TrEMBL record:
It comes from the Bacteria. This is HNH nuclease domain-containing protein. Residues 79-109 form the HNH nuclease domain. InterPro entries: His-Me_finger_sf, HNH_nuc. It comes from Agarivorans albus MKT 106. SUPFAM superfamilies: His-Me finger endonucleases (SSF54060).
Amino acid sequence: MRNVNGINFASQIPENEKLVPTISQNQLLARFIYDPKNGRFSRLVRVEEPDILSAFSGEVLEDGYSYISVAGGKYRADALAYLYMTGKMPSGDLVHINGDKSDDSWVNLGEKGFFEA
């Protein structure tokens, strides 16, 4: 925790921007099904037998992005979609091609550097 002139900087970071442990693709696959066509995640819920799917998992916050809580952290859904499809977390921000930050369909997501000239 960084403390400068009596100010605790860790407490100044919004909760949804604090670093969280990195989730693996296997952990994600064990908990969710991602539909690349509509960009929605469904949580796998164990209710006796067999496993069933819950409704859409996540929430859209004031910044316009969808967030999902999983494995002890809160992640942007676009980053989880990237992890689900590629096996790795994005190295930077993702671009929502149509401008809708809550549209996490696979065709709407791109790596930022790819779209910069």
